[in-house]
């Protein structure tokens, strides 16, 4: 074949090769930001900090926790959804608020489809916490008193449309009782208010309160799980006490929609590797984090299933402040 023809045939390949390399740059090129839509010290924040510490060792780059609390999570979730989808900004997303905020707020600046799920990390059942001196010993006497004094027993949650809030609304529908809702910006301020006596009940995930319970600072009335949690085997479920209520919050990692698939898969793989790392396992055990790993496809399918359920719930029982 003439040399000139060989060069002409090779020229397109020479032009394509640099372009292909430009489409898949080395990653990560700089530190990664991990957005947490709640204040420091809450259940999501402590899980994020533990996970980031192990992930940055596995990735060989630093991961900076960025707390963006406010509006029940909307501020942080919006910042994550609007970030550049290059894998250098990731964040924790929490159920149900990642779905309930767009449902209840037509002007919310994000939708579930604005996120690329990476991996679920924590699946934390709900719980009602009281101070040790509280007269309430279980769910039944709490409900009885709420019926006797409707709208006077206060409970704190991490916000309108949170798992804690929806759980208490479910309890009201089940029993006919009526409570007084006090929304906060996250789990940490709910804990503070419960410990100080500012509220009668702190409604928060079991992993957020069991350490205080072990120190005698709080006492649980019941856990909203299908069965007793191994981290607190003496804590009865709501179902055991005669109330068919199962609720909680999944907390996992997501990136902005549009992140390259290869980066998404690498992040998912590193997350799974981190969850099996001895340092993470020891920390998660100490922090009493109920873990549940889901890969990107399984996590996305679970979120979509839940989203349909919350839309149906809103159509029948729209939750309000």
Description:
Helix 2 links the parallel strand 1 and strand 2. This protein is globular. Residues 1-24 have low confidence and may be disordered. It has helices at 3-23, 43-59, 74-82, 97-104, 139-148, 163-175, 187-196, 206-214, 261-275, 278-287, 296-316; strands spanning 32-36, 63-67, 89-94, 115-130, 154-157, 180-183, 201-205, 219-224, 248-256, 291-294. It has 2 domains: 32-123 and 249-316, 3-Layer(aba) Sandwich (D-Maltodextrin-Binding Protein, domain 2); 125-248, Periplasmic binding protein-like II (D-Maltodextrin-Binding Protein, domain 2, 3-Layer(aba) Sandwich). It is built from 11 helices and 10 strands. Strands 1, 2, 3, 4, 5, 6, 7, 8, 9 and 10 form a 10-stranded mixed beta sheet that branches. Helix 2 (43-59) runs antiparallel to helix 10 and helix 4 (97-104) packs parallel to helix 11 (296-316). The protein has 321 residues and is an alpha/beta fold.
Task: Provide keyphrases for this structure.
single chain, 321 residues, alpha/beta, D-Maltodextrin-Binding Protein, domain 2, 2 domains, 10 strands, 20% strand, globular
What's the CATH class of the largest domain, please?
Answer: Alpha Beta
Name the structural class.
Answer: alpha/beta
Using the CA coordinates, give the radius of gyration: 23 Å
| Biggest sheet overview | 10 strands, mixed
Uncertain runs: 1-24
From the 3D coordinates, which CATH architecture of the largest domain would you assign?
A: 3-Layer(aba) Sandwich
CATH superfamily of the largest domain: Bordetella uptake gene, domain 1
Strand proportion, as a percent range, falls in 15-25%
Shape: globular
Mean pLDDT over the residues = 91
Total domains: 2
If you consult CATH, what is the topology of the largest domain? D-Maltodextrin-Binding Protein, domain 2
Order of helices and strands: HEHEHEHEHEHEHEHEEHHEH
